[in-house]
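Friendly challenge for the regulars: who can give me the structure tokens for this chain first? No prize, just bragging rights.
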Amino acid sequence: MAIGLLLGIVSLLLMTEPQRKTVYNRLLSIRPLPSRGRRVSLSKSPSRSASPEKEAPNNVPPPAEYKDIFPPWRRDALWTAVRSSPPARKDELHAAADGFLDVLFRDGLIPFEADYKTCASPFSTYTPMGISLSEIAALGDFPDYAELSGVPLPQPYREFTIESALPRPYRPFRWAYHQTMSLTKLENDWWLELENTYVERIKERKALFAKHGKMVLDYLPGSELGCKEVMEMALQFLCARYPQYFSLVYSEDRGHVFCSRLLQKETVVRDMHPLHVLLENVPEDFAVMIRNPDDGYYYFRAGLLCSSLGWNVATKLGMQLKQIHNPIPDYKEKMEFSMDRYFAKLPTARPIQRGSWGLEVDQPLFMPPGDPHEAYREYQAPTSELPLSRIHLRVDWQTLRRLPLSGAIIFNFKALFTPVEEFREEPHIPHLLTTILHHGKPNIMQYKNTWHVEHVALPFLEEAMRYQEESGMVEKGWEVGTLEEAPFFKGWRERWRAKQGF
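First reply, four minutes later:
Bragging rights claimed.
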């Protein structure tokens, strides 16, 4: 405590007169501290204009300044995250935490474009999570993110074998079909999902980066901590979920080394940028959204995106959330305020998942503007050139989560392809998709751009509807609606497991 008081006094002496007045005014209003025998709680969050649990309706005007709204803190988790650490690390964290001054938090936020490793000073000390740079340094590399975030590590998937692994059959169809985020709670065990294309997909993604460079991977100043966090969390997840294939070891000469039995390689983590570690080992896309302390809004500051269609890192990097979604129908009118508010208040312990979908010719993974594959979307090819076997459902299965140290929000997704022909044996799916294609809101369907394959897909789907009704798979006269099993379908698990040989 003496060290903390000394640091506080030094910080006050280094302030200008107006800054000291601000601190004194806040000190006058602060509630009494607990008795000396009781540790001050580390979980106290700064005041917010509204409780995360009592959100206003969408039509209420946004608050004047999002910069006064901070994400929920989890400072108490600092202690549980180091409970199994060596005593020296615990002592280092205690020394760093004893210097915490709540009243200095708002004036001590890390600048938007500052690198956390080099910006520490009495006036650039804290992340939006109320965690100081000295505390982050005390935690070290690969801290216990499960404790820090409140999201448990996944259960080991020991029956998993990469040779037969298939992605779960996501079918995110809804009816009535409106433009909403359609968010559900993340299934923690399935944040990063591997399949039998793992090795070839990693090769494909590395080739895309070699060809397209910053269209696929880039980062701006101020994203350093967020990139490091998501990389470390992803590697911890893979080691916990698939221990038969991945491990993380430490040595004094090389630091942390990620070992992949699937790729037969070792990645020395400190030798490359965190997004390159992900590119080399994780076949999913990641966008790092950083809070700007000047306005409280979130901006796209770093990304690894190998699965985008019609856009890429270069066309969106640096944009605010609403600018990124500008092309989406009804976003400004129905979703902009809700999404800005959601990003401002999202807790670390509540990651979410959702899916978007489209119909594609073949399996285009990355399609920047001007790509030759775009030509398929401009016309309806003759059926002699476009057999049903070439038409695929593409699902971008997405997750959204807040990181516990930087407060960055990570949007990640992977593209999954399914031949439309498989829908014949999936109850209710032909009915749902046919209804959406026929009756979906025109501006949304134009944005989805399914027209170029509908002349082939719809006749098949309508025949599949008749087959399912005649075989008793679906009751005749079924009123089309979102399935109880969404984003899957009735009997999906048994069918999925059987295809993998379980």
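DSSP finds 16 helices and ten strands in the chain. The longest helix spans residues 451-470. Your move, everyone else.
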